[in-house]
Amino acid sequence: MGAIVERKKTDGKAHYQAKVRLKGFPPQTATFDRKTDAKKWIQDTESAIREGRHFKGTEAKRHTLGEMIDRYLGDVLPNKSDSMQRDQTTQLNWWNEKIGDRLLANITPALISEHRDLLLKEIGSKRKKRSPASVVRYMAALSHVFTIAIREWGWLEDSPISKVTKPKEPRGRVRVLDDEERVQLLKACNESSNPILYTVVMLALSTGARRMEIMNLAWGDIDLKRRVAIIHETKNDERRALPLGKHAFKEIQKLSELRRIDTNLLFPDETGKKPIDIRNPWERAIKKAGIKDFRFHDLRHSAASYLAMNGASLAEIAEVLGHKTLQMVKRYSHLSEQHTANVVSKMNDKIFGSA
After folding, report:
1. 39 lies in which domain range?
2. Are residues 226 and 265 both part of a single domain?
């Protein structure tokens, strides 16, 4: 029940202390200059407590954004992949440094928008302005922290970041090796002084796997009977199996014959504790092959394009690459148009006859 107590200030003016006491909940108090405001506060507070809204608002006034991020870094992030932990730690520490001292109740869409724009203007770790895609990832990291605080901790009722527009990302780059470039690149890799470069590039081209997915492979991830490699640490945090084609399988077999006994990694460095760094051998091979404007990640685009040109559907390409939706593989849709046309043609012949 609510109660109002009238009190006098030192200057003789009246003020009103409102109290709300509901069984099973701690008492709530507030002071107002007008009795009508005190009555309204009692009604609103009692309603909010009964509906489970009041104490969420109270939690938002008790905790700062920094506290929310620290709890997330300690309780939630350790359950994610190593690469995700590295990236999100950097991203969330940026938010913590900029506005971590603000109460959650004071984190508004306008404040986040202001810092979104700051992210776009700042010089990042690569000594150039962050791309819109990078800023989207910073916002996504913070958004998930808010989601956990709302759903699991009851610190907020809704997320202010959900009302902020994300920067528009440019269309994804698609650089694909043509037939001549592919031959020249594989030749240069095969002639490299680095003994594993050819195998790594072959795996990237034949499976569409990312560089670190390949480099982190361990022998326990390889099933020679089923001819698959299991990727445990992926960008979307889900395991997936990479089918090993004939050529990739032969390379893995050759590698197994030279397997070191002091490490479980397929591609270890001298210590055997981490993967070998292939960046310099890769750059030399690209230069020797005479290929311009091509990055290691473009091997993944090349693999996806080859799949599309050989009749794979967008859903099949997404499955191979490990994408949860078709959005990311729509960039290859034009390459599978002939396959789609053939499918439609076969369907028409089936239902209408060849005539």
Report:
1. 2-52
2. yes
